[in-house]
Every structure is written in C-alpha cells, then in structure tokens.
C-alpha cells in the first residue's frame, strides 16, 4: 500500500501535497521533516521580530499570530490508491436528472419582499 502526505492547514483544512510514499514510515518521516521546517521558519522569524519590533506588547501579539499561522499546520499520512482499486460505489448517472434545454431562458426569480 502507498501513503500520501496531507497537510492540515491550521489543523483543519486538508491540502494535498501529491507526495506519495511506498512505506508508512517514510511518509511519517516526511511529516516530521515538514514540522521541523515549520519550527525552523518560526524560530528564524522570532529572531528577526525580537530585533525589529520595538514594543514588547506588539512583539508578543505578532509572535502569537505567527505561531498559530506556522505551528498549527500538521501533517498526516493517508492510504493512497494508485488507481488499481475499484470504487466502492459508482457515482449516480446524470441521465436520470433533468437537463436544461439549450437556448431556454431561465425562469424568473421572485423579487425581494419589502
């Protein structure tokens, strides 16, 4: 079985990376490297911010925001079918749903009530 690395941006929104691995351990290693890159980027930003943001309160707010932005991203490995698997169920055919006639005008919509 193959494994794909997916990034959960902000810990919630999945983003496909198209990175596919033969072994689960390799996928998890890539996820660990990704987390390290995010942590390194945060540390570099933090060093810059500590030198360039004069007010401690502004620095603290910016640091919290940057930490959420960078460190809230997480990776996970999911099974990846290489196209050799059959779908569990086929999608419904579109021939049973009514199709709009070409050249037909759209039906009028009711106006807002006031």
TrEMBL record:
Residues 76-114 are annotated as: Disordered. Residues 85-98 have a biased composition (Low complexity). It comes from the Bacteria. Residues 99-114 have a biased composition (Pro residues). This is Uncharacterized protein. It comes from Bradyrhizobium ivorense.
């Amino acid at each position: 079985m193959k494994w794909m690395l997916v990034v959960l941006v902000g810990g919630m929104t999945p983003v496909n990376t198209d990175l596919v691995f033969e072994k689960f351990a390799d996928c998890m290693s890539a996820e660990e490297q990704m987390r390290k890159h995010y942590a390194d980027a945060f540390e570099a930003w933090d060093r810059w911010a500590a030198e360039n943001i004069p007010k401690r309160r502004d620095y603290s707010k910016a640091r919290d925001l940057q930490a959420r932005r960078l460190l809230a991203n997480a990776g996970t490995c999911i099974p990846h079918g290489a196209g050799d698997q059959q779908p569990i169920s086929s999608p419904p055919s579109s021939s049973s749903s009514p199709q709009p006639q070409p050249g037909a005008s759209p039906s009028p919509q009711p106006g807002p009530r006031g």
